[in-house]
Amino acid sequence: MGKKDSTFDKPLAQNKKASHDYFIEETFEAGMVLTGTEIKSLRGGRANMGDAFATIRNGEIFLHNMHISPFEQGNRHNPSDPTRARKLLMHKQQINKLYGLSRQEGYTIVPLKVYTRNGYAKCLIGLGRGKKNYDKRESAAKKDAQREIQRALKEKQKVSY
């Protein structure tokens, strides 16, 4: 048994609504400030990013409304609030760039997924522009068409054998 060569693990939590509600124009990777029991719970898959959003205050970026369930075998230092604001770690230049871009009309900072890289919890955040209802219908139609194409190709491969 050799050492695992991959630097990425599978996503621990994903915001599936983000691609439905926003056009993601640019992505950034940020470290997360977590307690020991939070990271254990996160690795156990007990996190939800459904209503999560990010804000920038005083030159620091924070992740709000990400629910990490308390770790069952945790000690008394377990955070009592599972949806507390968690600080994200980014370079000052990246934060300033993100702040400038997010101040434009219609743009927001959207957390996309949480994963581990080399043992550290990372959050992929994106600069998103809100979709209108007709954009959502168009995206759904494209996705359905792509699914039909894949289904037809798969059927054709079955017949050719």
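Above is the first protein from milestone M3; the second protein from the same milestone is given next.
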Amino acid sequence: MAEKEMEAVKGLDLERYMGRWYEIASFPSFFQPKNGVNTRATYTLNKDGTVHVLNETWSNGKRDSIEGTAYKADPKSDEAKLKVKFYVPPFLPIIPVVGNYWVLYIDADYQYALIGEPTRKYLWILCRQTHIDEESYNFLVEKAKEEGYDVSKLQKTPQSDPPPEAEEGSEDTKGIWWFKSLFGK
């Protein structure tokens, strides 16, 4: 039986989607530090309608970050299917690495979101706060299940309250693991 096509949100309001999101849970990746904490993403709208992406995590007290650009895969479609392009700093020449970013669910107040992509290898639960209530979390897990995800692989990401300032532990290891974990390279 063929899996049904994964459904993305329609009519995402990009401006409302901007700002900081905390990673509540995700599928762990072989390359991601097992001890990555306080993982978060900050999105800023660019003048040309693309989105600046800053992903940060803290591992062993050190901040690790990577920046990229997100844009609609099909500008004519109203589906929230984005591509995210990262320029990977440690390698020369600098190569862009592109991955899929589909918003599978977002609540009416834009407070929590479920992000996935068509291979179902990656899944993220994001929230505007460092913590999400149990009911909303379980609801998102059910949504992921409906979209064909193996939710037993979800792992919660430790978040501290208040979250760290960007400067804390700012020795940056240049996002190698982000790049690898996002694209499974």
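Note on the second protein: The two ends are 29 Å apart (CA to CA).
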